Amino acid sequence: MTERDARPGRTVRKAVIPAAGQGTRFLPATKAMPKEMLPVVDTPAIQYIVEEAVRAGLTDVLMITGRNKRSLEDHFDRNVELEVGLEAKGDQAKLARVQESTDLGQVHYVRQGDPKGLGHAVAVAEQHVGDEPFVVLLGDDIVDPRDPLLDTMIKVREEHGGSVVAFMEVPRDQIHLYGCAVAEPTGQEDVVKVSGLVEKPKTEEAPSNLAIIGRYLLDPAVFAVLRETPPGKGGEIQLTDALQVLAQGEGPGYGVHGVVFRGRRYDTGDKLDYIKAVVRLASEREDIGGELRDWLAEYVRDMPAPGAAAQA
């Protein structure tokens, strides 16, 4: 068995979550609070991401952080004083919710230092990851637990080896907002063979409408490629540039496949989509969903037509 043949069956057990960004799109809220701690209903966005990793069996989680991110560590650490207080009050429901984040898995932290892009953040994880395949989860995308994307990606790697990237189909006029794939069908439903990737192409130059969403299953071969990857768009080291090399090269760990995701995904990457994510997730909650849906229906029904207030 060759080294390349041996890789696909290797268990995937580590997750990397880049969380060093400044969250400038959410200022002033993120002036003193990491954007990853912004609540989606009553749970920080970052907890949804860690929970997704753990559901897929990735209980060894590394967060790539930066300055002013201490609250991330505090959230996944025990707060003994709070737990004792809730226990004394007999509030078992809140105690269980507080302990959920502590008991998820083993969470480690390393600072990125000088943030030089997603590719640089992934490279920082090399010492922790070692010679193992690993998953990268970006915090702007929350994937509904009823649609287990990571399980599918792990199965694709077990069959094909190399790296696996998650895509979604977007309207052509939106593809300039994403990394975009040059891909060919494989004969498997919603699985493609990737031959190239372009970071935020012009609409007229985009090779497809397959947009990268924030889930990557990477072979450790990516680390050697990242060490040789020069800064790209924005002066940053782009992970898409390294994946382009892996897609077009030959050797152990090379080759890239894609999974076209058609499930439920909540985008918390900008203000409007963040609000939509909160409303959609809250409306499905058993405790508040019914009342919220009733209020939304009433609010929309009574809402003035666009421009009506200006004409009054």
Automatic annotation (TrEMBL):
GO biological process: UDP-alpha-D-glucose metabolic process
Nucleotidyl transferase domain span: 14-281
Keywords, alphabetical: Nucleotidyltransferase, Transferase
Superkingdom, taxonomy of origin: Bacteria
Top-level class of the enzyme under EC nomenclature: transferase
Gene Ontology terms, MF aspect: UTP:glucose-1-phosphate uridylyltransferase activity
Signal peptide extent: none
Catalyzed reaction equations: alpha-D-glucose 1-phosphate + UTP + H(+) = UDP-alpha-D-glucose + diphosphate
E.C. number: 2.7.7.9
One Pfam family named in its UniProt record: NTP_transferase
Family, per entry: Belongs to the UDPGP type 2 family.
Official protein name in the record: UTP--glucose-1-phosphate uridylyltransferase
